[in-house]
Each structure stands twice: as structure tokens, then as C-alpha cells.
Amino acid sequence: MFLRYCLLAALLLLPASFASSEDLLSVYSDAVEGDPRLKLAESKVGIGKALQQQAVGNMLPQLRGTGSFSENRQDLEVGDLSSGGRDSFAGEKYSLVLSQSLFDMPKYFYWKSQKQLSSQYEAEQVEVAQQLMLDVVSGYFEVLEAQDSLALISHEIAATESLLRQVESLYEKKLAQITELLDVRASYDALFADQVSAESQVAIARQKLQELTGAELGELSQLSDDIEFLAVEGSHAEWVEKLLAQNASLASLQRAVMAEEYSLKEKKASRLPVVDLQLSHQKSDIGYENSLRPTTTTDYIGVNVVVPLFTSGVTSGRISEASQRLNMARYNYETEYRALVKEVRDALLQVNANVRRIGAAGKALESSKRAHQAMLKGFTLGAVTSADVLDAQRNVFRTRRDLDQARYGYVLNRTRLLKASGMVSPHELVQINEWLIAQPGQSIPQP
């Protein structure tokens, strides 16, 4: 049911996508259809419901019917009361037995544990769906960041090539030294090695995203430059409260703890008496030791009481095992809780740091571009060397790369924060998708 909800939500959100490139929602829709983790989680939910149904059925009336048909031969020995002989006859026996537990605490606690287990699987399903949303956002923007890095290197190669042509021209006119020419050429050649590395990073990032969708990717929409990156409000304590209230992973582990608590109670309750009510209706023409007798109908009602007296340590061993399993469940919960608290703190600090970093990197980029233009003019006039121009050029691309990393980091850390607090949803993907534009590469200006 939850898997169908995710798929329906993704399909309903698709009309907002762009026709010329794949946006976040279209990738998410493919991931919902193709990711096996969602289907596995849905199967676990089905198993949980089936186990709960079985546990309920164990406490309800049980009715069984039996029938037997037999051919019998009876040899009578000669004695004081018998003259001997042989008798053959057919026999039929039918019975209908209804039983109902009146007092059976192990069955009751088993049902309670299975109920918690079913809720645990449902919470795990929510966790898997939210993790998929985070994986899609993370994979999508890793591709964009890798593509932007490759595009920046391509622009840097073009800019360095232009500078190299100028230095070669000056060298031919005896206006530049050979060391200056070799330095620019070495920088130019080194950029191609960086380009190869960037191309491999793009391929790796795209393959990682395709693993989620199970389909080939087209061109991805880019992150717009016209986004107002706002700091996330709320203190760390407030976000931890949201984590405790809404995180699906934590809720799943809490249900696991409760399931083990009821399992321990079930094992302890096995020392108590079990009381059953039994009603039976029987019709038979076979008597004791399959002897022939007139057809008889027997109705029976009784109360059976079973008292466990001695189990040679089996019950104690089961109680000890259940107690240790409960401790393990509690430790798992505490471990996950601490990890999530750290995740919330780190994501909250990083997303707000990204906001400040975006502002600082934007100013640094404008300053570096002006400095680069000044260096180019100075180089034309002979006031600075090509090394000074190269340093200014590298600074432009470095600050642009820092700005891109801060912008993508904001989106990823914000999504991480919402995921850890249990608040990420398809509607959050819609908001991120509105930040995208359908013109790949437009957000990377040349210096």
C-alpha cells in the first residue's frame, strides 16, 4: 500500500517536469518504479500482517472435523465365554471438535509481539521510502556537481589556451622568456589530466544514479542561479524533538523493543497454567480396540487445564534468550538514536554554514573575476607576467567551484536534515525541483 502511495505521488508530481531534460521528479518516479528496496519493504509489511493474523487466529475458536472408514476382521479364541470364530465388518467414525482458549497468556503476549512486529515493518517501509528520496537527491546533485566541475575545467582549458597563444606570440617576438612559455604550457597540459579525472567522476556519478532508477539518464536539469538560500530555523534541541517524534528508523527500532518486551513476557507466561474449553460431537460404530458396536452418538463438553511442572531448564533458557534479545533491541535503539542526533546536529550546522559560505563565495567570485580582468590588462601592457595571470585565472575557477560546492551542499544537507527528522517527503522534492532549470550548463559562467 505504501509503495503504491509513493508511486502515485511521484506520477502526480510529474506534470511539473521539463520536456527538454530530466528533472528531479522524473528521476524520482523512475526510482520508485525500479528500486527493489521498496518492493522488499512492502513484502515485509505483508509478512508482518500475515504473522499478526496467525497470532489472532490462535486465540479464536478452532474447529476441526475427522472421519475414518475401516475394514475390520476379528478372530475370537475358544474359551469359557466364546466358542471361537471369525467376524469381518466395516467401521465408520466421524467427529467434530470445537476448542477455545479460556486462559492462555503465552498466546496473548505472542499476539502483542506480532502486532508490534507488524508496526515495525510498516515503519521500516517509511524509512526505506524516505531513504530513497535522500538517495535520489544526493545522486542527482552529485551528477550536477561532477558535470559542473568538468565544465569548469573545459572553460579553464580554453582560457589557458588563449593565454598560451599570447605567450607564444610574445616569445616569437622575443618579448617573453622560454621559462614563461614552458610554465604556461605545463599548466595547459596538466589541465587535460584533470579533465580526464573529471570525466570519470561524471560517469561514476551518473552510473550511481542509474543504479537507483534502473534506466538510462538523459540530460539533467541544472540548479538555477536565482535561488535565495535561507538559513534553517530552529535550535538543535528543537530538531532533536522532531527526530524523536517523526523519524521512521527510530520508530521502527522502538517497535522492535516493544516486540521483544512482549516476547519476554510470553516466555515467562509459559510457566502459567493453560485452560481450554472443548466441545465435541462424535458418531461411530467402532468401539474399544476397533470392536463392533451399535452406532453411537456422543456429545462432550469439558474444560482442560494444563499445568507445566518441570521442563528441565527449557523454559529458563528461553526466558534468558528473550531477555538478551530485549537488551540487544534496546542497545540498537540507543545506537541509532545517538547516530541520528549527531546526523541532525551535523546537517543543521552544515546547511547554515552553506548559507554563509554561498554569500562569501559569491563575493569572492566577483572579486576574483575583477582581479583576473585587471591581470589580463596588466599582462597586455607588460606590467605583470603570465604566472600572475595564471594565478588569477585559477583563483576565478577555484572560487566558482567553491560556490558550486556550497550551493549543492546546501541542498544535500537540508535534505539530510529533513530525512533525519522524518520530515522529507515528495512535496520536499517538488520544492527542490522548482530550483532547477532545463538548460544544462547555463549556470557556469566563463571568467
Describe the structure.
There is one protein chain. It is built from ten helices and six strands. The protein has helices spanning 2-13, 24-34, 36-59, 105-172, 178-213, 236-246, 248-269, 314-381, 386-420, 426-433, and strands spanning 62-78, 83-103, 222-223, 274-286, 292-306, 436-437. The model is unreliable at 14-20 and 440-447 (pLDDT under 50). The two termini are 52 Å apart. Helix 1 runs antiparallel to helix 2 (24-34) and helix 3 packs antiparallel against helix 4 (105-172). The protein has one domain (2-69, 89-308, 333-437): Outer membrane efflux proteins (OEP), CATH 1.20.1600.10. The chain is elongated. A four-stranded antiparallel beta sheet has the order 1-2-4-5. It has a two-stranded antiparallel ribbon with strand order 3-6. The chain is of the alpha+beta class.
Give me the oligomer status: single chain
CATH topology annotation: Outer membrane efflux proteins (OEP)
* Top-tier CATH class: Mainly Alpha
Extended strand count: 6
| Average pLDDT for all residues | 89
The amount of helix comes to 55-70%
Radius of gyration, whole Å: 38 Å
| Total helical elements | 10
General shape: elongated
What's the architecture, going by CATH? Up-down Bundle
What's the order of the H and E elements? HHHEEHHEHHEEHHHE
* Low-pLDDT residue intervals, each spanning 5 or more residues: 14-20, 440-447
Most strands sheet: 4 strands, antiparallel
Strand arrangement, largest sheet?
A: 1-2-4-5
SS-based class: alpha+beta
Q: Looking at this structure, what is the CATH superfamily? A: Outer membrane efflux proteins (OEP)
Q: How many distinct folded domains?
A: 1
Strand content: 15-25%
Q: State the end-to-end CA separation.
A: 52 Å
